[in-house]
Amino acid sequence: xxxxxxxxxxxxxxxxxxxxxxxxxxxxxxxxxxxxxxxxxxxxxxxxxxxxxxxxxxxxxxxxxxxxxxxxxxxxxxxxxxxxxxxxxxxxxxxxxxxxxxxxxxxxxxxxxxxxxxxxxxxxxxxxxxxxxxxxxxxxxxxxxxxxxxxxxxxxxxxxxxxxxxxxxxxxxxxxxxxxxxxxxxxxxxxxxxxxxxxxxx
Length: 202
Fold this sequence. Notes:
Helix content is about 35%, strand content about 25%. It has helices at about 1-20, 35-40, 45-60, 65, 85-90, 100-110, 195-200, and strands at about 80, 120-130, 135-145, 155-165, 170-180. A five-stranded mixed beta sheet has the order 1-5-4-3-2. Helix 6 (about 100-110) packs across helix 7 (about 195-200). The longest helix is centred in the first third of the chain and has 20 residues, at about 1-20. Residues about 1-40 have low confidence and may be disordered.
């Protein structure tokens, strides 16, 4: 009898030790904190939110969120470069599409160290509303402090017309027309966003 009681005691002790040592396999796992991309992305219920999302995507070097600012149709997306870059980069923009857009921005992002400046600023924003679209015109300053050679500009200034349409209830850019600022106070030509795109796609 004593032997039997002793065996029961050791069995209960063994089960207790095992239970303490192991995590409960059925316990609820703590929720992971949301990623930076999830918290920074806003549903584009207004064209201005699309531009805000684009600014944040460049700050975070997030290719996916950058591309989400643009319409997801090859047939609907159009980019028109400024006149200077159109004549300076013949053959590039005649075939420009969403694949080129993703290629240039991916190359730009991968060439920027995490601790280096990348920013986009809009100013002098004007907007016009139409029954099924919207136009936003804005001046921009783009800064991409990459580690590539001097053949790749690190900044761009200009003006852009962004034409918006709605897809699945949200606003996206369907047409993007770029305009250069002719020169700075010294008379030197200033790179535009078109120059950035052409440089990073060559």
